[in-house]
């Protein structure tokens, strides 16, 4: 069916290339593009909100949401194609590819990247489906500087699928699993047959070559020493919200020449009886089973063990539990030997609460020919602690940092190597079961003993419980000072705080909305967040320890351990199949890879998500619209003229519907000969606000400024793309305006400013974008002006990206609710920065201009 529709659409595209669209139709299609784009962004936000833990949803919700957003994006492409007939046919190809992948996910045929092996250095959080949770979490630990991890690589889930396809095993697995689930054979029988088929399989040549390349890199890194490997499972779901602890096999001290055999054995362990039962218990579907394998350089451990960042058994105590022994740690996690036990305080000094030293006559160590052996421990060490007091404190500190980073108590495997360096071998969420002690006091009774600082105020952006010292982000404070585990308290929920959210335990703000940018980031990092709490910065004091219960909109004085424990034991929506499926679907819907229109990937072929398609279309639709002044017949379809202003801005205004008063319609041969428009004839509130800002008395500087010759020649020889400058409209400042939309394209001096503003009937869906680049001076001064713009715009709740002298700022949703205020600020900025780069002779001038502009803005906003 889709093939027939695509064929018809292609025929229509060819016909449209021969047709000329009228300007009146162009304006109508542009308005439809804006409305559809807004509808898509709202749908994306709604789906993302379901990850926050406030909603219960099923597969039918996911199917209907997918269908709505796919249909809307297809309608958007059609509307855009009516504006630019046949110009971007590859948009349909990108759309079909993304649609097919979404359908595959819903049909339980997950989309996996076509890569067979990935070095740890290349793995990112988005690669978890490919590399598996274990490898990805190790990489996250390293990148966050939360611990040292082994070097290595992941053999991907795509390699697993290729292995299964090449050896024709998949259908046999489905048959045998079905027989087991139906009671026709035992799990041991089904498991044995499946594992035998896997162990007899051959590794595909692509996988062999990829493993060989990464193995050679590890060899080079090992230097002169002989390389040994730890080959471990890294399956879907493993070491995530479900631990799969002990369900899959790992192999230590593997010789490089034995890697292929170890790889097959790990794949076979995917279908061990215990793993099969575990997956059935947690409703893993057959097509959700994918095994990546983590290949790590073997750590020659002096001491190994396990750390629980929170005791799973000591209900009334706040302790970190450590178990350790000499040599490798396998006997510790398997419970085969007596181990040294340490319980230490979670408080920063990590006082030793309990120590029990076991008799340790033997230790597991790497064997000379691979595998591992059991050796006798030297007599003096058998009854000595395997960890020094300093090592115990270092482990405790690392456990707290990992818990804060991953937002949950952690089950950590560690090793101290022969040099005494601490290596984190893995870290996974620690599952803590609820206590059934009938003597345990009710939580509500416990909470009565803690003073309440805030209650019943604010909007929940992300549920959960957080505790830690208060960090008040007053204006101008250096966020580099933010300590791991602190509770961020701020006046506004500004996007500038997104950078510290990975380190924050919680967030409370005076002003903000669950629809804002920072709220989205808080949900991504699962940081409990209470926004719009009114009095937060007045009540919560710097350095005081508090506990935030976001769901109950309450902040308690002090550390409420019972509340944290209750939160840790709560059932998690993210453990369900539907939640996992939503996360995978959103990877094809939500991420924005097309950010900068000047990048080479800003093409229809570069669209990797539905959000990318919407972004590309919006950008190109605006570009088409701003070509109107050079279009024959523009004056007949579009009233407007040159705006009369008290500053030499030479701004031409084109009204595409409701932006000017009715008496502005008139005849004219060319845009340059249009009638003059007076400011009072501007009906658009956003354009009027911009005019108020740009014409504020004393801000626009017209006096000539000295420019050195090298800077002048640099500015003259710079190349500006059609996107940033508008080749067809260089030398002309343009405003395209309607009752809801405003586009400004401004060339002032040697820099270029583009502003897009859209006002919705629902204020929470407003948006404004500001783009600024260029200048008459050298790169250093232009970059200083970019930093100035960035600091100013962040102060007014914009999300800002800076690249060299290019500044891109966006505000949407709640942050853009007061468009008049934002547009007036942008008008002030355009006037203030017109020749600002020339005065940026030192870094200190950045701060001076920020202060001066803040003073001007305060006076302007007060008028």
From TrEMBL:
<feature type="domain" description="PEP-utilising enzyme mobile">
    <location>
        <begin position="483"/>
        <end position="552"/>
    </location>
</feature>
<keyword id="KW-0808">Transferase</keyword>
<dbReference type="InterPro" id="IPR008279">
    <property type="entry name" value="PEP-util_enz_mobile_dom"/>
</dbReference>
<comment type="function">
    <text>Catalyzes the phosphorylation of pyruvate to phosphoenolpyruvate.</text>
</comment>
<dbReference type="Pfam" id="PF00391">
    <property type="entry name" value="PEP-utilizers"/>
</dbReference>
<keyword id="KW-0418">Kinase</keyword>
<protein>
    <recommendedName>
        <fullName>Phosphoenolpyruvate synthase</fullName>
        <ecNumber>2.7.9.2</ecNumber>
    </recommendedName>
</protein>
<feature type="domain" description="Pyruvate phosphate dikinase AMP/ATP-binding">
    <location>
        <begin position="130"/>
        <end position="435"/>
    </location>
</feature>
<keyword id="KW-0460">Magnesium</keyword>
<keyword id="KW-0067">ATP-binding</keyword>
<feature type="region of interest" description="Disordered">
    <location>
        <begin position="362"/>
        <end position="385"/>
    </location>
</feature>
<keyword id="KW-0547">Nucleotide-binding</keyword>
<comment type="similarity">
    <text>Belongs to the PEP-utilizing enzyme family.</text>
</comment>
<dbReference type="InterPro" id="IPR002192">
    <property type="entry name" value="PPDK_AMP/ATP-bd"/>
</dbReference>
<comment type="pathway">
    <text>Carbohydrate biosynthesis; gluconeogenesis.</text>
</comment>
<keyword id="KW-0479">Metal-binding</keyword>
<dbReference type="InterPro" id="IPR036637">
    <property type="entry name" value="Phosphohistidine_dom_sf"/>
</dbReference>
<dbReference type="Pfam" id="PF01326">
    <property type="entry name" value="PPDK_N"/>
</dbReference>
<dbReference type="InterPro" id="IPR013815">
    <property type="entry name" value="ATP_grasp_subdomain_1"/>
</dbReference>
<dbReference type="InterPro" id="IPR006319">
    <property type="entry name" value="PEP_synth"/>
</dbReference>
